[in-house]
Write a structure and sequence with these properties.
alpha/beta; Purple Acid Phosphatase, chain A, domain 2; Double Stranded RNA Binding Domain; 6-stranded mixed sheet; 21% strand; exonuclease; Nuclease SbcCD subunit D; DNA replication; hydrolase; Mre11_N
Length: 386
C-alpha cells in the first residue's frame, strides 16, 4: 500500500504557485507505484486546497486519475476538511469502474472497497472528514464532537467487518486530528467545543489506519500513521521530511512500513537576527537558494529591509519583525503573545483585558465555545452547499 494525503492541489506558498511542484510530486507518485509494484494507493483526504478549486488544480487531479487508472492500480481516496465532499464525489460511481474509489459520503463509512491478495480479502473503509454537527444524526452519534462521530463511524466499520470471512484484514482511511500527532501552522483548525484531538483507541480493530490532516509524516503506533503532506505549505514545516508511507500488510495483519521521500522543489529556511548580521554571516550561504522566512530583531526597523535581503536571499518570501527589547521590558509583540493560543483562549484573554483582569465565567465560556462552533459549522455548510 502507498499511503499519501494532503495534496492541497491549487495551494500556493506565500503567493508562489506550487502547481509545477505538485505536478512533479504526482509524477513521483506514479514512478513509485511502478518501481515498488504497489498494489493499492491510499489518499487520506485534502486532495484540493479549497472546496471550489481552481481549474488548473482540477485538471491536475483529472490527469492523475487517468494515469492511476491506466497503470491498473486500485486507488482509494477520501475527502478532507478542505475538500467539498459532494463536489469531489461527483461521478464516483462511474470513476469506480476504472478502479478509483472515491469515498466522500459519510453514510458509506461501513461499506468497504474489497481487494484481495494471495492471503485473502482486505477491506478498505473510507471515513471522509466528518463535521460533527452535520453528520451526528446520520451516524447516530450520542454526542456532538469528533470523538463521538468517529466512534459511531468505526462501530459501523467493525460491524461490517464482523460479517466478513474470518481472517479478512481491514484498512481504515480517516481525516482527523488524532491525539499524539504533532500539528503545524498550515492545517485548518477543526476544533469542536474546544476539543480537536480524538484518542487513537477509536480505531481499535483495524489492521492499518491511514490518516490525513496533519502535515508532518509521523507514526502514532505501528498501525496508525500520518503520511503528511507531500510539500511544505508553511515555514513551520521547514524541519519536515516530506514522504509517503510504503506499507506491507502481511496475511496475519502484521504491518511493516518505510518512508519514501518526496521531491523538494526548494528547501525552506528560517533565519533570525539583525539585518546587517544576516547579510554578512557566511554560515547563511547555504540558504541563498532557499525559500526564506526572515525575522529581524533590530531595535529600530531598518530602511528598505526586503530590498536589501533579496540581494543576498533572492527567494525571501516572508519578513517578520521582533525587535530586541531591554531585559526588563514587560511588553512583547502581539504575535508573541498570541503564539500557541487557540481562538477560544484569545477571546477569553480579550474579555479579561477589557474587564481589567476579570475573565469570562463558566456561562460566558460556554457561549464563546458555541459561537466559535456555530461559525465553523456555518462555513462547513457553505462549502457543502456552494
Amino acid at each position: 500500500m502507498l499511503h499519501t494525503s494532503d495534496w492541497h492541489l491549487g495551494r500556493s506558498f506565500h503567493r508562489v504557485s506550487l502547481l509545477e511542484a505538485q505536478s512533479a510530486f504526482l509524477d513521483h507518485l506514479l514512478a513509485t507505484v511502478h518501481e515498488h509494484d504497489v498494489d493499492v494507493v491510499l489518499v487520506a483526504g485534502d486532495i484540493y486546497d479549497r472546496a471550489v478549486p481552481p481549474l488548473t488544480a482540477v485538471e491536475l487531479f483529472d490527469a492523475a486519475l487517468h494515469r492511476l487508472a491506466e497503470a491498473g492500480v486500485p486507488t482509494v481516496m477520501i475527502s478532507g476538511n478542505h475538500d467539498s465532499g459532494r463536489r469531489l464525489g461527483v461521478g464516483a460511481g462511474l470513476i469506480e469502474r476504472a478502479g478509483i474509489h472515491l469515498r466522500t459520503d459519510p453514510a458509506g463509512v461501513g461499506t468497504p472497497v474489497l481487494l484481495a491478495d494471495a492471503h485473502g480479502d482486505v477491506a478498505f473503509y473510507g471515513l471522509p472528514y466528518l463535521e460533527p454537527a452535520l453528520v451526528r444524526d446520520e451516524l447516530g452519534a450520542t454526542k456532538t464532537g469528533h470523538e463521538a462521530v468517529l466512534t459511531a463511524a468505526m462501530e459501523r466499520v467493525r460491524a461490517d467487518l464482523a460479517r466478513r470471512t474470518p481472517g479478512t484484514r481491514s484498512v481504515v482511511l480517516a481525516h482527523a486530528f488524532v491525539a499524539g500527532g504533532t500539528p503545524s501552522d498550515s492545517e485548518r483548525d477543526i476544533t469542536v467545543g474546544g476539543v480537536a484531538a480524538v484518542p487513537a483507541g477509536v480505531f481499535a480493530g483495524a489492521d492499518y489506519v491511514a490518516l490525513g490532516h496533519l502535515h508532518g509524516s509521523q507514526a502514532l503506533t505501528e498501525r496508525i500513521r500520518y503520511s503528511g503532506s507531500p510539500l511544505a505549505y508553511s515555514f513551520s514545516e521547514s524541519d519536515h521530511r516530506k514522504t509517503m508511507w510504503l506499507v506491507d500488510l502481511d496475511g496475519d495483519g502484521t504491518v511493516r512500513a518505510e518512508r519514501i521521500a518526496c521531491p523538494v522543489p526548494r528547501p525552506l529556511a528560517r533565519v533570525r537576527g539583525r539585518l546587517d548580521d544576516l547579510l554578512a554571516d557566511p554560515a547563511l550561504d547555504r540558504h541563498e537558494d532557499s525559500w526564506v522566512e526572515v525575522t529581524l530583531t533590530d531595535p529600530v526597523r531598518p530602511a528598505e529591509p526586503m530590498a536589501r535581503l533579496v540581494e543576498r536571499f533572492p527567494h525571501t518570501l516572508s519578513l517578520l519583525f521582533a525587535p530586541e527589547l531591554p531585559g526588563d521590558e514587560p511588553l512583547a509583540s502581539y504575535a508573541q503573545r498570541l503564539r500557541d493560543r487557540d481562538d477560544q483562549q484569545i477571546a477569553q484573554d480579550f474579555v479579561a483585558h477589557v474587564r481589567g483582569g476579570n475573565g469570562p465565567d463558566d456561562r460566558e465560556r460556554t457561549a464563546l465555545l458555541r459561537a466559535f462552533d456555530d461559525v465553523r459549522v456555518d462555513m462547513a455548510r457553505r462549502e457543502v452547499t456552494g
